[in-house]
Amino acid sequence: MRVVRATVIVTSPGRNFVTLKLTTEDGITGLGDATVNGRELAVAAYLRDHVCPLLIGMDAHRIEHIWHYLYRGAYWRRGPITMAAIAAVDTALWDIKGKVAGLPVYQLLGGASRDGITVYGHANGETVAEVIDQVAGYVDRGYQAVRVQCAVPGVAGTYGVAKTPGRPYEPADGRDRPTETVWSTERYLDFVPGMIAAVRNRFGPELRLLHDVHHRLTPIEAARLGKSLEPAALYWLEDPTPAELQDSFRLIRRHTTTPIAVGEVFNTLWDCEQLIREQLVDFIRASVVHAGGITHLRRIFSYAELYQVRTASHGATDLSPVCMSAALHLDLAVPNFGLQEYMPHTPETDAVFPHGYHFADGYLHPSEEPGLGVEIDEKLAARYPYDPAYLPVALLADGTIHHW
Ligand code: EZ4
Ligand code: CO
User: Fold this and answer.
1) Which residue among 16, 18, 170, 317 has the greatest number of ligand 1 atoms within 8 angstroms of its CB, and so is best to mutate?
2) What is the pLDDT at residue 156?
3) Is pTM, for the whole model, over 0.85?
4) Are both 260 and 396 inside the same structural domain?
């Protein structure tokens, strides 16, 4: 079953998405997400110029072989652009295999290990009262887990707080250059424990509460925060410190039992091998699009399972509905599923990517259609041309570049 066409579709129905579409000689199509927020055209070029020509004539059934052909065959390994491109090919091939088999992809991965995918929503308030209101809204809609972020008084443009209420907040909105936000570790560390304690007191012990630090702290500051949050019994504290230096997490572990989730920017198993093997994290946040597709993410999850590390795939709105569909099939199948991030896309995005996954009573359910159960409306996609956008940068008061 030869691949006869490989096309890259860049569309911006509210934000930019890069999608790979493969077509086989019998007219079967498969989709893969290749979006790297703020660097979209680099992946589009990597695919168009270097990968699509190689795929023509290849046997679409040889998923594992093609993965290694693109990984080993490039010589230059890893990195977000390479791995997002490989992910898109891999995801599209799983989609095709499912359609050929007449089965949803989770059936090809071993079948359902659970009845539905527990997801968490995002509460992002300007004030603690607003955060509590938003959490209450999620609880009313049946969510069992909520990530809580709140504007820190005196810190303009705190990560995770929407500029326009109700709009997805990852603000890849700097058109010519990144917008600049300020950061104060002192104000943040002073404010966050009280904010989270207030939410915990209001909602009781059962609701899973999460908080994302977005790599802003040093290891010892992260240790202090983890310790101060212990009474609130977080489900996880996310990205407490940058993970390039993995020994940092040994230091955090020495001081706190607050569970740690890391990995939304990871590209391969080699980015988290030590973190998992030394049990320095509790949840691994790698995603289908940024960690080499279903084939490689499954490998990461299997490795994590050996060490009782659970899955927690990144699912922000800069990952397209194609990635979300793929994530749900994997989430349903793996034994060590933990929790899936879920931010609904805008109606414009949903219209460009019609999909069968749906939310009911706190759970997401993948489509039962053969393959991934997501398509792309190319005519509609063409009405939303690429729109340059950058993620913000964060500066300290003296102008030093900090981690955003
Ligand atoms: O800032 O996806 O947990 N979610 C996150 C996201 C990231 C964006 C970056 O593109 O940290 O909101
Ligand atoms: Co995050």
Assistant:
1) 170
2) 80
3) yes
4) yes
- Site to probe by mutation for ligand 1, drawn from 16, 214, 343 as the one with most ligand atoms within 8 Å of Cβ, is 214
89-122 confidence digits (pLDDT tens): 999 999 999 999 999 999 999 999 999 999 999 9
The CA radius of gyration of the chain, in Å to the nearest whole number, is: 20
133/67 same-domain check: no
Tell me the per-residue pLDDT of 35-46, one tens digit each, with 9 for 90 and over. Answer: 999 999 999 999
pLDDT tens profile 127-155: 999 999 999 999 999 999 999 999 999 88
Please name the residues in contact with 90: beta carbons below 8 A apart, sequence gap of 6 or more: 32, 63, 66, 67, 292, 293, 294, 295, 296
Domain count of the fold of the chain: 2
Q: How many residues does the chain have?
A: 404
Catalytic residue among 159, 342, 357, 363: 159
Residue nearest ligand 1's atom 11 by CA: 214
DSSP state of 270: G
Q: What is the pLDDT of residues 285-313, one digit of tens each?
A: 999 999 999 999 999 999 999 999 999 99
Q: Which of 211, 214, 345, 355 is catalytic?
A: 214
- The answer, yes or no, to whether residue 184 has pLDDT greater than 90, is yes
Residues of the domain holding 66: 3-104
* pLDDT band for position 171 (cuts 50, 70, 90): low
Establish how many alpha carbons lie within 13 A of residue 175's alpha carbon, considering only the half-sphere containing its beta carbon: 2
Give the pair of three-digit tokens for residue 151.
Answer: 């504007």
- Give the count of beta carbons closer than 10 Å to the beta carbon of residue 233: 14
CA of 395 to the centre of ligand 2 (A): 19
Query: Residue holding tokens 């320095």?
Result: 280
Whether residue 397 is found in the same domain as residue 326: yes
| Structure-block tokens of residue 42 | 């680099």
